[in-house]
Amino acid sequence: MLRSRPKNVSFTNLLKKSSGLKRSFAKKLVPMDGNTATSAIAYKMSDNIFLFPITPATPMSENTDIWNSKGIKNVYDSVPDVILMQSEGGAAGALHGACVSGCLPTTFTASQGLLLMIPNMYRISGEFWPTVFHVSARVVGRNGLSIYGDQSDVMGVRATGFAILCSGTVQECNDFALLSHLSAFKSGGPFLHFFDGFRTSHEISSIENFTDEELKKFIDWKALEKHRKRALNPENPYCLGTVQQTDLGFQGIESYNEKYNAIPGIVENYMKQIGELTGRKYHLFDYVGHPDAEHLIIMMGSGTQPAEELIKKFVKEENRKIGLIKVRLFRPFSKKHLLEAIPDSVKRIAVLDKCKESGSIGEPLYLDVCCGLQEMGVKIIGGRYGVHGKEFTPSMVQAVFDNLKKKTPKNNFTVGINDDVTFTSLEMGEPIDIMPKGTQQCVFWGIGSDGTVGANKNAIKIIVDNTDLYGQGHFAYSAHKSGGVTISHLRFGPKPINASYEITNADYIACHCTPWVNKFDLLKPAKQNSIFLLNSPYNTVEELEKFLTNEKKREIAQKNLKFYNINASKIAVDAGLSGRINMIMQTAFFKLSQVIEEKEAIELLKKAIEKQYKIKGKTVIEKNCNAVDQTIENIVEISYPREKWLNLKDSAVEEIDESLPDYYYDIIKPVSNLQANDIPVSKFPFCGYLPSSTSKYDKRGIALTVPEWNSDKCVQCNLCSFVCPSSAIRPFLLTKSEVENAPNGYQTLRASGVKAKDANEKSLDYKIQVSPYDCTGCNTCVVNCPTKALEMRPLQEVAQKEQEFWDYSINMDANKKKASFKTGNIKGSQFLQPLIEFPGACAGCNETPVVKLITQLFGEQMMIANSTGCSCVWGGTIPSNPWTTNEKGHGPSWGQSLFEDTAEYGLGMAKSTNTRREKLKKLVEKAIKDKQGNEINYEIMETLQLWVNNFNDREKSYEYGEQVKDMILGEKNYKDNKFLKQIMQQKDMLAKKTQWIIGGDGWANDIGFSGVDHVLASGENLNILVLDTEAYSNTGGQASKSTPRSTVAKFTASGKNTKKKDLGSMAMTYGDVYVASISLNANPKQAVKALIEAEAYDGVSLIIAYTPCIAHGIKGGMGNSSEVNKLALESGYTTLFRFNPNNAKINKPVFTLDSKKPKEVLDKFIKKQNRFDSLKFTYPEQAKIKLSQLQKDIVKKYNNYDRMAKSEKLNKKKK
User: Fold this and answer.
1) Does the active-site annotation cover 138?
2) What is the pLDDT of residue 1088?
3) Which residue ranges does the record assign to the 4Fe-4S ferredoxin-type domain (predicted)?
4) Sign of CA pseudo-dihedral 156, 366, 427, 386
5) How far apart are alpha carbons 8 and 762 in whole angstroms?
6) Chain centroid to CA 1210: how far?
7) Can you tell me the distance from the alpha carbon of 66 to that of 73, in angstroms, rounded to the nearest whole number?
8) Does the active-site annotation cover 88?
9) Is 1107 a known active-site residue?
10) Res. 654 pLDDT band, cuts 50 70 90
């Protein structure tokens, strides 16, 4: 029987008891996100912090590094050691070592990172050490990588022996971080504290923090002393990690039972103590709901917030008998405490899991509850929600309760999707608004890198710090790098805000990126009479009538929106802020929303600007403050003709284009329009399959300006195409008839340096053309054009004309069909089709031009094993696949496994391909040998022999392989011939493949280095490309072993103390590995030569490409990265070389130094990048020392290479 809940406890008191949201005026509310709330406690309670970056847990690590650099102490009166490791496995191993040595260590991780720690977790729990792993729970990638939050990673470690504690709000992150450390100390065993990634980790909310004195009062100092005495020490020696046999192991495992049995009581006791101090009451299982509830939901994490708020509403307004159990302590799972929390009246229970466990009869929490409540006699069903970070809203909570009411409730259900295959999904009703009265809800649509998200975080801080309002912020991002959609959801109100879902009833909507207004359904959540602010160049109603779609104008009128426009982009340019419109739009928000009185808001904004940009200097501060002043004067209210707009008809309906694949309408279009949540299960391809050439459908149109070609100034060097990160500007060769049929205004030149293949064509014409809606406006092509033949023009002025020209150009025959030209140089390579186009990289990216060039040279038979990182995001994000094909449908095949195993993954690909090709070769050789019985005609036999003779020649095996296929297909009854039939079954193995392993410097130097080293030693014919951004660019710019000395990066806030790892020198020690260091923008000729040599080398090649990144803070933007590349080369910062073992066979130097003696321009190079220059403002004395050491590192490295080159030449002369 269940214990009855005391009848004298009212429902209101129950709510207060569980919610713990009574505001304490003795303590100041502070805005922070879940990661900060957690790391603030972890830092204070730990001796050592072992780190490795992984989204979305990385900010916790970054916070601790910053606090460490400032000398902030923990509660033990010391500054914790913050140690960056090479991998999550390394972090867990080092943490284990710290445990056994008597310290109190912690770490932060998520997803696969957590799974890499599993072996250490078993050992740590097996030895029962007090430590805490803080986990920003995230999807464990299956058929694709996802950075968003569900609880599959935590469920994957539930058997490790760690106690597991779950937070559902930002405040709980702070409280339960403390609770986990205290409980670990007291119990002596390990804890895992987790919260939902992004949903809670990145949500900003108003919380109360703890003081150091309060923290110290909670600590059981005797327990800590006991832990330290237990440590390994030569003065009290004993052994750990022994070898056990069958006669001992079982009993040893069972000896822990008492320890685990004590944990629930320890956690409960500390919950009570925290409650007595703060007024926030917690229990192992917290109940919210009607005292006599009949239907109950059991769940944990952020989803409890909408469930709790909806239950409050329905119990108060309709006296519904429903309730919620919030699971706090998941491991050890206390059946006793769960039974005590559930009212006697409960008849049906729905257990919700935020994960999918394939093949199981139910998910983990559901199975635990079923086991724990098997004697209750109530019906228990299970369901899944929020998987892969899916939204969980009040209407979904309603759907779960509606299902419970049915005569036969659906079990193993899903909520939040449309499962039209196995029909697990629940039907949902209209959105339900449960926000407290007086809550102001605001949605901001921005574009990645425009500063919108940062500005909104700043707005929350300003409002919470200077009013009595509570604040909350949640931020959604697209998978593109910079240039993608960002959506900020901000709420402010006089009461605590518990809403872990996106806004559906907005009082204020701002569109910061002009194209978004017509592309997306951004006004859908707007309330009647709410405010809509648009950033656009159109300040009059006449201009807006032309620009806005009829549907958008009608929606504005139907909702009677207060419509404002501001040309923020122009204000930013005039103020010298380039595309950074964040402060402008933030100023407009404060003026229009009146959440703070305008004059006060402007003063607070300027103070925030001064604080934020202090390290960037007085000029930057003045520019931003000037932009704020200009904003107030330039907000224009649009008095639109409401009656006219109300009666507008729909715009022309888009006709179905039969030439487009089903995948476009099923997946690409809804995803691009941010309607992917509505895609049913039946439309999804199996196992994460992503067809090639889908990025061409994006047409994002995010550039403010695009290049326009002036044929009179062009010298046909093709450098603009060579450096373009997006393949959005290309050279085209035209026949006479193609020129004659071109659209009006289509400029061409007589082509030089090429020869027409058709004898009837005396010459060809030449054209440079941009794809305006695929261009990102980075300006790189203009900066690199030697004759200023390109000029940036406003997109809206030239888009229609340039798109017409692009469509005509791209549909012509390929250049190589019409002309003969050399491909082993800058100009000729660009006449080849790029087999990667329009990747979702940052504007001005330096990685993509390198990869693009490789696809132009070798892409038709290219196989790619790609590491996790930037290159996997811009190279493989559904539905936008930038890898494309030639006219035969051939092109790069691309796969990604994990971050740490890319080299091994690529080696496996190469070995498998070789095995299959060798089998085909044996078959062909057998057919050739059996001349009498094979019944194959002479021409085919002859061509097969040529193919065998050129088996390992990429180009010739491809050529003869194509001939073989054509010849066999010309045989009417080839399927009756056993040899020809089998050859055609394996025809995809005729051409020799070129295997590439691609990844960033963090992968190659840190987490994946052991794999890279193994592949270097393998002797296999494959190529490794390291895109060296000198940081973990994909996770926000954390330091790697490739980061040079003095760099200010995440994890090196006071400048890196050690020099850059020289991966190239290490690889050369093998002697049989081709190694090259290249910089595409600094020395393009050398880069082309190195890539061709590397691919031709019969063995392992390693190419290290210096690729400056947006994380470097290049002044003037990434369009200026070419200058940075050149300064890097001139100063000796980057050293270019080639190490070609083949040269030994022809008595040439194996090592060639392609860099000249460094010039004294390092200071100029440093001043171009905030990653170096900012150190002078934050740590001026350190800057002097470390920058001087950097100069010495550069000179020393160059001298070493110079000696190698001179020694090579000397040795050759002697021979």
Assistant:
1) yes
2) 97
3) 705-734, 766-795
4) negative
5) 100
6) 49
7) 12
8) yes
9) no
10) confident
For position 1214, what pLDDT does the model report?
Answer: 61
What is the spatial distance between Cα 510 and Cα 635, in angstroms, rounded to a whole number?
13
User: If you average pLDDT over residues 609-623, what whole number do you get?
Assistant: 82
Single out the catalytic residue among 498, 779, 1023, 1034. 1034
**Catalytic site residue from 138, 580, 917, 1045:** 138
C-beta atoms surrounding 986 within 10 Å = 14
What is the phi/psi pair of residue 488, to 5°? -105, 130
28 or 251, which is more confident? 251
Paired tokens of 696: 């061409």
Distances (CA, A) of 578 to 571, 582, 1118: 9, 11, 12
Partner residues linked to 357 by β-bridges: none
Task: Choose the catalytic residue: 35, 38, 48, 55.
Answer: 55
Average pLDDT rounded to a whole number, residues 1124-1131: 95
pLDDT at 236 over 80: yes
Q: How confident is the model at residue 6 (pLDDT cuts 50, 70, 90)?
A: very low
Write down the mean pLDDT value for the chain.
92
Higher pLDDT, 611 or 405: 405
Phi-psi region of 701 (alpha: psi -120 to 50; beta: other; left: phi over 0): left
Q: Omega before 743 cis (within 30°)?
A: no
List, edge to edge, every strand of the sheet that includes 1074-1078.
Answer: 893-896, 862-866, 994-1000, 1022-1028, 1100-1106, 1074-1078, 1137-1139, 1151-1153
Please list, residue by residue across 428-453, b when 16 or more beta carbons sit within 10 angstroms of its beta carbon and e when fewer do: beeebebbeeebbbbbbbbbbbbbbb
Q: CA 558 to CA 210: how far, in whole Å?
A: 49
Q: pLDDT band at 684, cuts 50/70/90? A: confident
Closest alpha carbon to 830 in 821, 842, 839? 821
Residue listed under structure tokens 């190419």: 1103
For 287-346, write each residue's pLDDT tens digit: 999 999 999 999 999 999 999 999 999 999 999 999 999 999 999 999 999 999 999 999
Whether residue 1056 contacts residue 1031, with contact meaning beta carbons closer than 8 Å, is answered with no
Q: Which long-range contacts (CB under 8 A, 24 or more apart) does 606-610 make?
A: 608/458, 608/461, 608/462, 609/583
What pLDDT band is residue 269 in, cutting at 50, 70 and 90? Answer: very high
Contact 1208, 1151 (CB under 8 A): yes
Token pair recorded at residue 662: 């089903």
User: Hey, what amino acid is at 1142?
Assistant: N
Helix (H, G, I), strand (E, B) or coil at 1193: helix
Residues listed for the chain:
1215
Report the DSSP beta bridge partners of residue 1064: none
Residue of 88, 308, 738, 1130 marked active site: 88
